[in-house]
Write a structure and sequence with these properties.
Bound molecules: nicotinamide-adenine-dinucleotide
Distance between the termini: 45 Å
CATH architecture of the largest domain: 3-Layer(aba) Sandwich
Number of domains: 2
Shape: globular
Oligomer: single chain
Order of helices and strands: HHEEEHEHEHHEHEEHEHEEHEHHHH
Mean pLDDT: 97
Helix content: 40-55%
Radius of gyration: 20 Å
């Protein structure tokens, strides 16, 4: 898939340029939005379990703060780069704007391979990283959350470290925390649930019945597993799933509750060894099989740059529901559009996570906590409104859903930039 040439920041800027041209965006606003407001690069020296010191590199990038404090996840992965974090921060700006949350976009990452680190090494790295970036994060400034290879435990260490540094408990500094320390009901499943809501609305629009639909999902982590569960509950048949350990396929439909239980019991939370389907053990081959399946709904929920000009022609799904950030290259986007595939773009489709993160932050600031029903009802309202707003633009402007989502998001951010003006 020509990984060497892929630069997510260039892709993000190209997407912005495309929409800027389409809406005749003021060039002065465009040149501001093509830059990140702040990027902090930190080195993180850690004493490893064997007594040696290893230095990791970490980043926190804030793309835009025009509509409110910055919001975005923290990624631990060997392939993290500053340009990837910048792209993810820009996409967060658009995502928050599409669903109308009062946030700007940010992202963070550490170049590391947590699969080869002990829990205590991960804890020390998290705490030092948090201390280093506490110059720019805070409940009123920039609020991190989980992303690839980070979870509620990592958020607990971040919250604790920040709180120790400021001298009081500051639960509002991160979201995606355990409920016991100020987390929110419904946050864990929020991104997957949001994806299901957007898919369900798309199915209604396309006059398709969920009970007749098959689904393939790439990635079975926070987003992919919750998406599988929610789509299964909606009545869809999930016929293929992949993760770093390979893929499992069953044309009659995978037993999703059993697969979820299998993954929960597995030491590294992998689908490998699940008895309810045919396995493809080579992850690369498994992904090729999965992405090219003749299914109704394809949901990439792993990493960016999975559907490119190299394989877009061989995508057969009717609906592409982007749980991951940036899974489709702009060239692939055009090919899929020509093929008539209905694309539910990442900045809308995976916005459920940041939406419930917003609810968590509001609850922390007010020290008043909501019931799960209230959370899910509000999530439902925001995601369906987001889908309808984007669909209305797509129909009015005769453009694909991604362009429509970008028109909505960039116009909202541009209005904020104009209202606030350029300082000084
Ligand atoms: P995660 O670490 O919980 O899960 C990632 C999953 O992808 C794992 O199952 C992993 O095995 C799998 N994976 C990794 N590389 C793969 C490959 N090459 N082929 C197939 N599977 C692979 O991460 P997550 O939080 O679920 O995030 C997944 C994607 O969703 C990322 O793009 C992230 O930015 C995006 N996202 C996450 C959230 C959130 O709330 N966590 C919100 C919005 C968007």
């Amino acid at each position: 898939m020509n990984k060497a040439a892929f630069n997510p920041w260039h892709m993000a800027c190209q997407q912005l340029d495309n929409v800027a041209q389409r809406i005749n965006l003021d060039p002065n606003v465009l040149c501001k939005l093509r830059h990140c407001k702040r990027a902090l690069i930190v080195s993180i020296p850690i004493r490893m379990d064997d007594g040696n010191v290893q230095v990791f590199e970490g980043y926190r990038v804030q793309h835009n703060l025009e509509r409110g404090p910055a919001k975005g996840g923290i990624r631990y992965h060997p392939a993290v780069t500053l340009d990837e974090v910048k792209a993810l921060a820009m996409w967060m700006t658009w995502k928050c704007a599409v669903v109308g949350l009062p946030y700007g976009g940010a992202k963070g990452g550490v170049v590391c391979d947590p699969r080869h680190m002990s829990l205590s090494e991960i804890e020390r790295m998290t705490r030092r990283f948090t201390s280093e970036i506490s110059l720019i994060i805070g409940p009123e400034k920039d609020i991190p959350a989980p992303d690839v290879n980070t979870n509620a435990q990592v958020m607990s260490w971040m919250m604790d470290t920040y709180s120790m540094n400021v001298g009081f408990s500051a639960p509002g500094v991160v979201t995606g925390k355990p409920i016991e320390i100020g987390g929110s009901e419904g946050r864990l499943a929020a991104t997957g649930r949001g994806l299901m809501i957007v898919v369900r609305e798309a199915l209604k629009h396309l006059h398709m019945n969920p009970r007749d639909c098959t689904v393939a999902i790439q990635g079975f982590g926070n987003v992919g597993s919750a998406a599988a569960e929610c789509l299964h509950e909606l009545g869809c048949r999930v016929v293929g799933v992949t993760d770093v350990s390979g893929g499992v396929f069953n044309s009659k439909g995978l037993d999703i509750p059993a697969l979820l239980e299998h993954v929960r019991q597995s030491p590294h939370r992998l689908i490998r060894g699940f008895p309810g389907g045919d396995h493809v053990e080579d992850p690369k081959q498994a992904n090729i099989t999965l992405l090219e399946m003749d299914v109704d709904i394809l949901a990439p929920c792993a990493l960016e740059h999975q559907i490119t000009s190299q394989n877009a022609d061989r995508i057969h799904a009717k609906i592409l529901a982007e749980g991951a950030n940036g899974p489709t290259s702009p060239e692939a986007d055009e090919i899929l559009h020509r093929k008539g595939i209905f694309i539910l773009p990442d900045i809308l489709t995976n916005a459920g996570g940041v939406t419930v993160s917003y609810f968590e932050w509001v609850q922390d600031l007010q020290a008043h906590f909501w019931q799960l029903e209230d959370i899910n009802q509000e999530l439902e309202r925001i995601m369906t409104r987001g889908f309808r707003d984007v669909l209305e633009i797509a129909e009015r402007e005769q453009c694909p859903m991604r362009m429509a989502a970008y028109i909505l998001a960039v116009s909202r951010v541009a209005t904020a930039v104009k209202l606030r003006g350029i300082y000084p």
